[in-house]
Specification:
alpha/beta, 430 residues, TIM Barrel, single chain, 2 domains, binds zinc ion
């Protein structure tokens, strides 16, 4: 298949902008020739001048949170982060059953596809439907046709038996993902841990020990709120932090902690909209980057639209610094360069660029630049134009997931109806 007559943003090492060009997609799902010629013949899709760029990546999300949309909490509103966890998320995840897990993931993935997100790094929790839950999420990824890096959030908050169950689910799924036929390429695994403040030394030591042979990265919340301050030092001492580790948030970190994250080459994921919503504070993106920490961008389940996260990251850092000149490079790198680096470190998958040999994860956007567009002024076009434009098509692994703004792999309306029924019952059990 070849996509032609597209305005191409390559995000390759030369960061080229081709005003009109073609991208070949090979049968194995990788990108072939990329050039400025017009292709003709069979298996050619005319993009009609739409913008073609790499599909987006969400480096930290919770698909299990999808069915909470519109839920009302009994009693007074939670006044801080621990109360938000206790009154909302830790009640919701305990109420989930196996089918809820599947439909919650399905809805979240359809939303992601419609926002041009082709790869999601998910952090799952369903304490009363733990064993096998990651298989249900994997099924949802395969049904929609997106890529995912999955894990189960091990925690002692429901007692030591459920912590053990969480560890077992991670081991089982990592083992399975590592045995998947080569070239399968849709689903991979990390080892999920909730957060330092809900994990005992014993559980953390056990997780580190069993992961020695699995060699999967840990995916964990780190210092999201003041209640988890000190997490970096503790996790370092227990052997959790290394270059495969994905540390979500890192809001409440000291200068010494940032040094540790940089030296251990930990992958930090900034989730600006969630941090705003929970009023936990803002990660010091500029300082993290200046000190050499690789920082990517996630949604923490707050929004499927990574363009929104990019914009919020940018705005928040300017506000924090009180300086309108900052955060251009950092916010851009987090969303469009570092997320793909993180996926490559964790998975070895080459996505996030339009270049021969990379995987064909692409989006077509209804964006026709009304002002000159070149690689030098890409930032302004993304921020003020592309980020607000409708995503028309999504291709993942060379296969079409979204076309004419409609999901072609699953029946979106039917899924929504089934999910709404499940959500009603879930809310009653909540
Ligand atoms: Zn999270």
């Amino acid at each position: 298949m070849t996509i032609t007559n597209a305005r191409i943003l390559t995000f390759d090492s030369d960061n080229r902008v081709l005003d009109s060009g073609s991208v070949e997609i090979r049968p194995d799902g990788s990108i072939g020739d990329v050039n400025s010629a017009r292709a003709r013949g069979k298996n050619v899709i005319d993009a009609k001048g739409k913008l073609l760029m790499p599909a987006l990546i969400n480096c930290h999300t919770h698909l299990y949170s999808t069915l909470a949309r519109g839920i009302s909490l009994p009693g007074r509103a939670p006044k801080n982060f621990p109360e938000i966890l206790n009154k909302l998320w830790w009640r919701l995840d305990r109420a989930l059953n196996e089918e809820d897990v599947y439909y919650s993931a399905l809805v979240g993935l359809i939303d992601a596809a419609k926002c041009g997100v082709g790869t999601l790094v998910d952090h799952h929790s369903s304490p009363n439907a733990c064993a096998g839950s990651l298989d249900r999420i994997e099924q949802a990824f395969r049904d929609v046709g997106l890529r995912g890096i999955l894990c189960y959030e091990t925690s002692d908050r429901n007692g030591p038996m459920q912590a053990l169950e969480g560890i077992r689910e991670n081991i089982r799924f990592i083992d399975r993902a590592q045995r998947a036929p080569r070239g399968d390429g849709l689903v991979a695994a990390t080892f999920g841990l909730h957060a330092s403040f809900t994990l005992t030394d014993e559980t953390l030591r056990r997780a580190v020990e069993v992961n020695q042979s699995l060699r999967a990265g840990f995916h964990i919340h780190v210092a999201e709120d003041g209640c988890d301050a000190g997490a970096v030092k503790r996790l370092r001492d227990l052997g959790v932090l290394d270059e495969q580790c994905l540390a979500a948030h890192c809001v409440h970190v000291t200068a010494a902690d940032i040094g540790t994250l940089a030296r251990r080459r930990v992958n930090v994921v900034h989730n600006p909209q969630s941090n705003c919503n929970n009023a936990v504070g803002a990660a010091r993106l500029l300082e993290l980057v200046r000190r050499g920490v690789l920082v990517g961008l996630g949604s923490d389940g707050y929004s499927p639209r990574m363009f929104e996260e990019f914009k919020t990251a940018f705005h928040l850092q300017k506000l924090l610094a009180g300086d309108p000149r900052v955060a251009y490079g950092e916010a851009y790198a987090a969303a469009f360069l570092n997320n793909r680096t993180i996926v490559k470190k964790l998975w070895g998958m080459e996505i996030g660029r339009i270049e021969k040999g990379a995987q064909a994860d692409l989006i077509l956007v209804d964006y026709y630049p009304p002002t000159p567009l070149d690689s030098g002024n890409l930032f302004g076009h993304i921020l003020f134009g592309i980020a607000n434009a409708p995503v028309d098509s999504l291709i993942v692994n060379g296969c079409c997931v979204l076309r004419d703004k409609q999901c072609v792999t699953v029946d979106e309306r039917r899924v929504a109806e089934k999910a709404a029924g499940r959500a009603r019952a879930l809310w009653e059990r909540f």
